[in-house]
């Protein structure tokens, strides 16, 4: 997605890190770059608005459950693997090995 205009911060970078922006999990200098980009790029601003609305809806409907710290760490680890282009295992490699069932 792009408006076809050149920007200081590329649309793909903005969209790749949109949730970090929404969750305030990026340095303020990067947040400022994204804010400038949204002022210039209506397609990215529209995507931002949509994702923000979805996030609010999910929080309202499902925001009462705390996510276990270990689960969050596993999910973030998988996201990092995907972003770095590394192969992601099909199964959970952090789980304890399965024990054979007794007959």
Could you describe the 3D structure shown?
It holds the Pfam family zf-HC2. Residues 11-44 form the Putative zinc-finger domain. InterPro entries: Anit_sigma_mycothiol_RsrA (IPR024020), Znf_put (IPR027383). It is globular, with a radius of gyration of 18 Å. The model has no long low-confidence stretch (mean pLDDT 82). The relative contact order is 0.11. The protein is 59% helix and 0% strand. The longest helix has 21 residues, at 42-62. The chain contains 5 helices and no strands. It has 103 residues and is mostly helical.
Question: What would a concise description of this structure say?
Answer:
The protein is built from five helices and no strands.
């Amino acid at each position: 997605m792009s408006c076809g205009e050149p920007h200081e911060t590329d649309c793909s970078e903005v969209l790749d890190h949109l949730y970090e922006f929404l969750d305030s999990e990026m340095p303020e200098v990067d947040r400022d770059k994204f804010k400038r980009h949204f002022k210039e790029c209506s397609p990215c601003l529209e995507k931002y608005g949509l994702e923000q609305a979805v996030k609010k809806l999910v929080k309202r409907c499902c925001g009462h459950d705390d996510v276990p710290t270990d689960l969050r760490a596993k999910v973030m680890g998988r996201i990092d693997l995907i972003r770095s282009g590394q192969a992601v295992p099909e199964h959970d490699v952090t789980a304890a090995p399965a024990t054979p069932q007794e007959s």
